[in-house]
Specification:
Layout (H helix, E strand, L loop, with lengths): L24 H8 L2 H28 L1 H8 L4 H24 L5 H19 L6 H9 L3 H31 L12 H21 L4
């Protein structure tokens, strides 16, 4: 044990290295944050939801024959595959942008895919009773746009099933359980794509189209 007698210098700095301030930590973080990019990005998302869907519906009503001519060479399975792929890219971009919040690449991919998905949904008149509305507008060619609607719905339902199962794993599986590996990011993405592929297979080969 060492005994120190006399005064001890606690710091070699005669003056404080950090200037005094009346700002709190919340005020400092607020000054560092940049709300303008977030506001612009939110407006882009809003525009990607509204404008492409409105444009697609306008094309469906005013350019019906032209859309039928362009879709006729393709099989319903191919149309469903394209709509499913665009929707999966949209959800993937959203998920990765939440995980990698500092990278703008996946945010841009999400917005572009969202706009494309909304355009397809607008052309296909996607809503709860789309079977009736597509037949009224497209007549005998309604099976083509219905395929696009089924592709979008399949991808969305797969995301819903995945979300329920993933949240259930987070709540029910203990940390020392071997099943806990399913809650990791790489395992979650694999499980997500497995559900999406199952949904796609049901649409393509389930006799729905």
């Amino acid at each position: 044990m060492v005994v120190v007698s006399g005064p001890t210098d606690v710091s070699k700095h005669p003056e404080a290295s950090i200037p005094e301030s009346d700002l709190s930590l919340a005020d400092i973080e607020r000054e560092r944050s940049k709300p303008l990019p977030a506001i612009i990005y939110g407006l882009l998302i809003f525009a990607a939801i509204i404008v492409p869907y409105w444009l697609g519906r306008a094309l469906a009503i005013r350019r019906t024959k032209s859309i039928i001519v362009h879709l006729t060479p393709y099989a319903p399975q191919g149309i469903a595959l394209v709509a499913w792929a665009v929707t999966v890219i949209m959800f993937t971009g959203l998920a990765v942008s939440l995980v990698e919040s500092r990278r703008w690449l996946w945010r841009i991919i999400f917005v572009v895919a969202l706009a494309a998905e909304q355009l397809i949904a607008g052309v296909a008149l996607l809503k709860f009773d789309f079977w009736y509305s597509t037949y009224v507008v497209y007549g005998q060619a309604s099976n083509l746009v219905n395929a696009a609607n089924l592709g979008i719905c399949a991808a969305g339902l797969a995301v819903a099933v995945f979300a329920v199962i993933f949240v259930g794993l987070l709540v029910l599986v203990r940390k020392d359980s071997p099943l806990n590996v399913l809650t990791r990011s790489w395992a979650a993405f694999i499980m997500f794509f497995v559900f999406e592929l199952i949904a796609l297979a049901l649409i393509l080969f389930g006799g729905i189209l």
